[in-house]
């Protein structure tokens, strides 16, 4: 069982940018646009901003508001699929015998978002990029909480964009872009516990993102992950902080 | 501003996704990299690719001569001009 404090969080999806918007939507979900309207990212200079694809704009849009006033912070960057629209366009270029764009290539790696944010914030703290299929969200938290043993604060940033049509028969993805930024701390914020549980059959058909968001918006008492194979994880608040 | 200079500027804007910049804002003589327009090493590779695609010009990635060609819009225009005359 791992304990940590959640100092703050911020989540972005098309039309959902505040906690109250998320809560209303989670209670009565309706289909979201598959594209993010322009996140302005005014904190970043135009010359660097042009390098952000939709995935990066989404991730930065969630993370930057949390990081105001923080000069240096290590980060865990988690994405199941990474920038598949960009990767696919590069592969199509290869198939078409086109020379590959150096910019496109440099941005297609899994740690591109971490790199861009590091340049934009002039923050050379450690960055860890991870991918997972099942349990992406608890595993991102596990990595961040582990790093918290050595650091006062750690950013945990989880993001994905919809898979291009071509890949959809083979893997799942949300039908809309999203990013969730969580600021984990050793000393400030709500007390949380992350622990392994036996994987539960018959978890509601909701995605990991929806389960985690329902928990963060206080609609569920815990967020349980893992659906029958491997290891399950549960995230919950410590009921009575006074007992610690 | 000659047509070739304008063409070079538009090529730079298109190749580097400089959506917010107008060709008229780029000075023919100002440095393109670091100072001036503020481009970086990935942009240099991208311009190299654009020169190859559009004008069939191939450059060595890291020679002093290449650095001179990439100094400004005027220097790039001179390079294209000299290749066309060959």
From TrEMBL, chain A:
InterPro entries (UniProt xref): Ketoacyl_synth_N (IPR014030)
Domain Beta-ketoacyl synthase-like N-terminal: 22-195
UniProt name for this protein: 3-oxoacyl-ACP synthase
Organism: Marinobacterium zhoushanense
Species lineage: Bacteria, Pseudomonadati, Pseudomonadota, Gammaproteobacteria, Oceanospirillales
From TrEMBL, chain B:
Gene3D superfamilies registered for this protein in UniProt: ACP-like
Carrier domain location: 2-84
Top-level lineage group: Bacteria
Annotated InterPro entries: ACP-like_sf (IPR036736), PP-bd_ACP (IPR009081)
A Pfam family per the record: PP-binding
Coiled-coil regions listed in the entry: none
Protein name per Swiss-Prot or TrEMBL: Acyl carrier protein
């Amino acid at each position: 069982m791992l304990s940590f404090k959640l100092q703050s969080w911020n989540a972005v999806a098309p039309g959902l940018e505040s906690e109250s918007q998320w809560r209303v939507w989670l209670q009565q979900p309706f289909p979201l646009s598959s594209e993010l309207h322009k996140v302005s990212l005014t904190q970043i200079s135009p010359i660097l901003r042009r390098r952000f694809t939709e995935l990066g704009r989404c991730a930065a849009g969630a993370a930057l508001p949390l990081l105001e006033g923080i000069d240096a912070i290590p980060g865990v960057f988690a994405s199941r699929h990474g920038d598949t629209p960009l990767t696919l366009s590069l592969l199509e270029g290869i198939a078409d015998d086109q020379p590959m764009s150096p910019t496109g290539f440099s941005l297609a790696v899994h740690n591109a978002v971490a790199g861009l944010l590091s340049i934009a914030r002039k923050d050379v703290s450690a960055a860890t990029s991870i991918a997972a299929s099942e349990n992406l969200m608890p595993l991102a938290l596990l990595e961040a909480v582990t790093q918290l043993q050595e650091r006062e604060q750690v950013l945990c940033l989880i993001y994905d964009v919809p898979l291009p049509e071509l890949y959809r028969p083979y893997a799942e993805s949300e039908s809309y872009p999203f990013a969730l930024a969580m600021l984990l701390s050793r000393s400030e914020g709500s007390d949380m516990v992350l622990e392994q549980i036996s994987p539960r059959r018959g978890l509601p058909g909701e995605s990991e993102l929806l389960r985690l968001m329902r928990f963060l918006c206080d609609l569920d008492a815990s967020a349980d992950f893992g659906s029958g194979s491997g290891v399950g994880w549960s995230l919950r608040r410590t009921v009575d902080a006074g007992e610690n | 501003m000659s047509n070739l200079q304008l063409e070079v500027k538009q090529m730079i804007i298109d190749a580097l996704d400089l959506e917010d910049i107008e060709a008229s804002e780029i000075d023919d003589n100002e440095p393109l990299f670091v100072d001036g327009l503020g481009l970086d090493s990935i942009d240099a590779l991208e311009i190299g690719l654009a020169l190859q695609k559009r004008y069939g010009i191939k450059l060595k990635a890291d020679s002093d001569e290449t650095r001179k060609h990439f100094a400004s819009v005027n220097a790039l225009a001179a390079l294209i001009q000299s290749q066309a005359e060959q």
